[in-house]
Amino acid sequence: MSQLPSSLPHEGRPAPHAGAAVRPVIHLRADAGCSDAPVLKERGQREVFCGLTGIVWLHRKIQDAFFLVVGSRTCAHLIQSAAGVMIFAEPRFATAILDERDLAGLADANEELDKAVQRLLSRRPDIKTLFLVGSCPSEVIKLDLSRAAQRLSAQFLPKVRVLNYSGSGIETTFTQGEDACLASLVPILPVSDAKQLLVVGALPDVVEDQFARLLKQIGIDNVAFLPARHSHDMPVLGAGTQYLLAQPFLADKSAVMQGYLSSEPYAIEKAAGIKPKVFLLADEGFDTYSTTIDTRTELVEKNPDLVKRFVEASIIGWYNYLHGDNKAANALIKRDNPEMSDDLIANGIRLMKEYGIVDSGDSLTAGIGAMSDARMKSFFDKMVKAGVVKADLDYRKSYTLAFVNKGVGLNLKPKN
Ligand code: SF4
User: Where are the domains of the chain?
Assistant: First the structure.
């Protein structure tokens, strides 16, 4: 197999006795209130369960929506026990279970998903919006639910709209699943610049009605709620909309997400108008290789020339893409992923060069794709320390340096 890279100070008080449980005292200033006090720990609902749990209240709120978790048996158990649905009820959530064959890439998970959706929609004509909900397993096997949603929407619209969002425990905790669900609705909301107040967050119907009544009493009339109770009744959105965020997750200051330097920070900046702080794992000592080329040992042994040509073509492709004419490649990227705009791609290339994501360190002399035994050992040692693999595993069998470190493509690099 070959892999390519890609205590608070006590403020003058006596020190506490060793071993005593100490609660730090934060002195509040009369002129600043508590806003200047340091945050010691943020806690709350975000610390429990994964984002799938949002389905429990979302399916009760949007009465003609169905939530199809694309996940494992664990996900099914979680939702079932969290929602506590009675056996004779017709629940509006289910789990399309990815089995061993899907996880091992032996079956086309998209095909299986399409069949599951077809069966579901023919049995349940009451469904008007179908959410495909991503889970840890679907993310690990990189099942592209956004494309699946587009494909299935094209098939079932206008009767049923298919949307997707991630509720996986890797990306979201608890109410963040609802956050993602509501965000998936935004692009399909009708646009209007009318003045209105939009209350965001799935409130129980009785609370929503009380809310509307109270707002009316204080003179706020044009009030809408997201999500609405029915798919055909979703609110409009536009320049005249003011927001009232009724759930804690939307004000989450401690949100952290994993992403690619070349993509997510820019997308967040554009969508939310804020510059997220970016922390590179590599800067924290995590020096493993990423975006590797993987194949079976058998192929490397039986057809090394094929592997060599594939690896070298990939290396040369990277040099041409970074330093040559990349129009054709960008056209293919945009065709396969319509979410990739010209500015997103240009920004990604700029950052890849600036941060040396593809070409830096060993690759400057040995060529893109450079790898070393030392870095492989460093990653293995970290994984052993973290308890992911056993120390007696022969990790050296998982990679080969036979096809890299040969300076392929260095001549394609601009000289300056
Ligand atoms: S999405 Fe992930 S964390 Fe949530 S139940 Fe499924 S496997 Fe567990």
Answer: 51-187, 189-247, 297-412
To the question of pTM greater than 0.70 for the whole model, the response is: no
The alpha carbon dihedral of 29, 35, 37, 41 has a sign of positive
Sheet holding 241-245, edge to edge: 223-226, 196-200, 241-245
CATH architecture of 51-187: 3-Layer(aba) Sandwich (3.40)
Whether 78 lines ligand 1, by a CB cut-off of 6 Å, is yes
Nearest-CA residue for atom 7 of ligand 1? 136
CA of 294 to the centre of ligand 1 (A): 27
Of the candidates 248, 249, 200, which has an alpha carbon nearest to the alpha carbon of residue 228? 200
User: What's residue 151's pLDDT?
Assistant: 95
Which alpha helices (DSSP H) does 186-263 contain, by range?
A: 205-217
Contact 243, 198 (CB under 8 A): yes
- Does residue 138 have its Cβ closer than 6 Å to ligand 1? no
| Ligand 1 centroid, distance to 50 Cα (angstroms) | 6
The CATH architecture annotation of domain 189-247 reads 3-Layer(aba) Sandwich (3.40)
Give the separation between CA 136 and CA 166, rounded to whole angstroms.
9
- 56 Cβ closer than 6 Å to some ligand 1 atom: no
Ligand 1 centroid – CA 91 distance (Å): 20
Question: From the CB of 98, is ligand 1 less than 6 Å away?
Answer: no
97 vs 43, 94, 283, CA distance in Å? 32, 9, 38
CA distance 65 to 301: 52
pLDDT one-digit tens code per residue, 256-275: 677 888 888 887 787 777 78
4 neighbors 375 (Cβ within 8 angstroms): no
**In the chain, which stretches have pLDDT less than 50?**
1-23
Check if 76 has its Cβ closer than 6 Å to any atom of ligand 1.
no
- Ligand 1 contacts CB of residue 226 (under 6 A): no
Is there a common fold for 51-187 and 189-247?
Answer: yes
pLDDT digits (tens, 9 = 90+) for 203-224: 999 999 998 998 888 888 899 9
